[in-house]
Amino acid sequence: MTRQSDAGFTLLELLVALTVLGFVLAGLSGGVRYGLRAADTQARTLAERSELDAVDRALRRLIEGMDPGTPRDGSGFQGSAGRLVFVSELPAASGLPIRQAVVALGVDGARRLVLRATPRLPGKPFGPPPPPIEEELLRDVDRIEFSYLSRDAGAGWSSAWNGKELPFLIRLRVVFPPGDRRHWPDIVAGPRRERSAGV
Questions:
Q1: Kind of pairing, strands 169-175 and 187-189?
Q2: Rounded CA separation 51/176 (Å)
Q3: Alpha-carbon distance 144 to 162, whole Å?
Q4: pTM listed for this prediction
Q5: Do the Cβ atoms of 149 and 171 come closer than 8 Å?
Q6: Which residues pair with residue 85 across a beta bridge?
Q7: Strand, coil or helix: 74
Q8: For the sheet containing 169-175, what is the strand order?
């Protein structure tokens, strides 16, 4: 005689077990998809943050190292709403024997934020100037907006700078094309070097 417990699983028990297993697998699949999406989002955020940090450091270093020039010659600084030209110290990592250069910042026709540096050769007014070094700082940029603050705090920010002296602070706003996920905070930096006493 066969006992009920030795007969194995009934069809109903198998269906219930398969249903429960299906729910468990569906939950695991959803969890894995969520985990992969979260990891992808985190990787994109870290890449964007790393890009911002690199651009921020490079621009701050150049602005803080601006050459204020002399009272007679001025600083050579030219600032408009979309372009900035100044004399600054290049970082030692540039590998150039000449550290001082005329630096131009702006967005080119290919929507790249580009730094163009032309090394200055003091005491060599003749001969062809050295070729400029161009470095892409950022891609897919709609425009960059510069504004300038004078030492007179009541004057407020202006979109152009024509003075012989350097502005007290420079604000850079990177504007990305519509639909771009990147939204960066403004970069604000100021020159730190004192004007030389040359006449």
A1: antiparallel
A2: 14
A3: 19
A4: 0.68
A5: yes
A6: 78, 104
A7: strand
A8: 157-158, 143-149, 169-175, 187-189
Nearest in space to 38 (alpha carbons), one of 30, 26, 27: 30
User: From CA 52, how far away is CA 32, in angstroms rounded?
Assistant: 30
Q: How many CB atoms lie within 10 A of CB 37?
A: 10
> Would you give the distance in Å from CA 56 to the centre of its chain?
5
Beta-strand pair 157-158/143-149: antiparallel
Q: What is the pLDDT along the chain (199 residues), one digit of tens a residue?
A: 455 555 677 888 888 888 888 888 888 877 777 776 766 666 666 566 677 788 888 888 888 888 887 777 777 788 999 999 998 887 665 555 557 888 899 999 999 999 888 877 665 555 666 678 888 888 999 999 999 998 876 778 999 998 778 899 999 999 999 998 888 899 999 988 766 555 4
What's the alpha-carbon Rg for the chain, to the nearest Å? 30
